[in-house]
Amino acid sequence: KAGVTQTPRYLIKTRGQQVTLSCSPISGHRSVSWYQQTPGQGLQFLFEYFSETQRNKGNFPGRFSGRQFSNSRSEMNVSTLELGDSALYLCASSRSRGQETQYFGPGTRLLVL
Amino acid sequence: AQSVTQPDIHITVSEGASLELRCNYSYGATPYLFWYVQSPGQGLQLLLKYFSGDTLVQGIKGFEAEFKRSQSSFNLRKPSVHWSDAAEYFCAVGAYNNNDMRFGAGTRLTVKP
């Protein structure tokens, strides 16, 4: 079974731009969660989607948003990029919510200049 | 909300020596505990998990972890470390009703020849 895939793997943007990252979950998985990883803050939960609805959101500004499609694929968007948004963005999928194992993709490395 | 502490930022062990990585969690209900490993520039790979039952759990690559409720700990162990085990290790705690997983700061493992 194919794992979680994320595209693109690397991205360079400038301040003020916006970016969209994509995540395809493991087949049959209906929940997708996003995490931001930085050297200073570590791994932080961004949000969780299940059945095309955002179910939970971490402590991030409204510039960070996401959506989930009917095939469970998910996208996250960051508008008005700031230097501090440079990070590895990880997507994880699971069959359902709570008491589930989350499987991670390879991540998208975003560099904001 | 749940939280995780990994007291050791960096550990160095010799190849063939035993390893123990510490993890302490805080969660008001039954914890769902995980250990993940991350190689440089990669996503997170699940090593093992604890949901309930036997408090000693076996994982991949020869790793095991023991859940001790009285100490709020979930330490990871390996009897004999291989050079390929050099990576960063993350302990995480999940919730029973959502996928907001909280991670520790990670422990970087260096293996000496």
Walk me through this protein's architecture.
The complex is a heterodimer of chains A (113) and B (113). Chain A is built from no helices and 11 strands. Chain A is mainly beta and 113 residues long. In chain A, strands 2, 4, 5, 6, 9, 10 and 11 form a 7-stranded mixed β-sheet that branches. Chain A is globular, with a radius of gyration of 13 Å. Chain B is mainly β and 113 residues long. Chain B contains no helices and 12 strands. In chain B, strands 2, 5, 6, 10, 11 and 12 form a 6-stranded mixed β-sheet that branches. Chain B has a 4-stranded antiparallel β-sheet with strand order 3-9-8-7, with no helix packed on it. In chain B, strand 7 (56-58) and strand 8 form a beta hairpin. The interface between A and B is medium-sized, with 27 and 26 residues.
Note the run of SSEs of chain B as H and E: EEEEEEEEEEEE
- Alpha-carbon distance between the termini of chain A? 37 Å
Helix content percent band of chain B: under 10%
| Structural class by SSE content of chain B | mainly beta
Report how far the terminal alpha carbons of chain B are from each other.
Answer: 41 Å
- Low-pLDDT parts of chain B are none
How large is the share of residues in beta strands of chain B?
A: over 45%
Estimate the global geometry of chain A from the Cα principal axes: globular
Instruction: Provide the succession of SSEs of chain A.
Output: EEEEEEEEEEE
Compute the average pLDDT of chain A.
95
Q: Helix/strand-derived class of chain A? A: mainly beta
Largest chain-chain contact? A-B, 27 and 26 residues
Tally the helices of chain B: 0
Q: How many beta strands in the DSSP annotation of chain B?
A: 12
Oligomeric status: heterodimer
Number of helices of chain A: 0
Radius of gyration of chain B: 13 Å
